[in-house]
# Entry
Amino acid sequence: MGNLISLNNISYAYFGKIVAIKNISLDIEKGEMFAIIGQNGSGKTSLLNIMNGLIFPDSGDFHYKGIKIDEKSLSGKEINRGLRSTMGYIFQNPDIQLFCPTVLDELLFAPLQLGYSTGEATERANLTLEALGIGYLRDRSVAMLSGGEKKKVAIASVLTMNPEVLLVDEPLAGIDPKTQTFFVELLLELNHAGKTVIFTTHHLDLIDHLKPRVAVLSEEHTIQKTGTAAEILIDEEFLISVNMIHEHSHEHNGETHRHYHAHYVFH
# Structure
């Protein structure tokens, strides 16, 4: 299928001092389900921000569809539109993403910015609202939504663009179990429909459920291992070494028992 996204020896530090990611090399193919996992502070969100052109690496190269993406190239209208119109970013906290007065306004914003007519944008918005089962929120104030409703509206606002690539930061964060299940199944459906889905998480059961290819970031902000979900999940010693699972020991009837603990949502 060919590489859609290529990162070559990428490093980035906030304010030039606080290391976020270091020497990251990664290729993601079109149509893949891909996960970036690691503990909080390992650099997962920073990596997504670079892929979306929100920040630029201090060193190394990022290519999208074979085109180098940097501050200079994104200053060109054609390349900027090529990235913004085909890649959608769903933030961990929907409050960062939502800023319009009503739900309909949120869904209209991206298509209108991309040059669609009001009629086309409205049609896209209404179809997306109905597809996600949130048509009843159409005229609701964003400020009056619940956390789960905000997440669904944030998703809908991205899907109105019909992006080829979805970047999703911590899809399970801050939402109720029903919305979590809705979101996870939606990601599967979108991937089966041909979308490239790239997400971050520290929930190992989400990896087990979605079966993506996986890159594991260490606490040193670099990739320690890549592999299939099965290859990553079976290696308990490795998961302990990157602080993704924890060993707990206790004694029972004079025998020592060891158990592994991880972040699990689906049981």
Remarks:
- Residues 256-261, 263-267 have pLDDT under 50 and may be disordered.
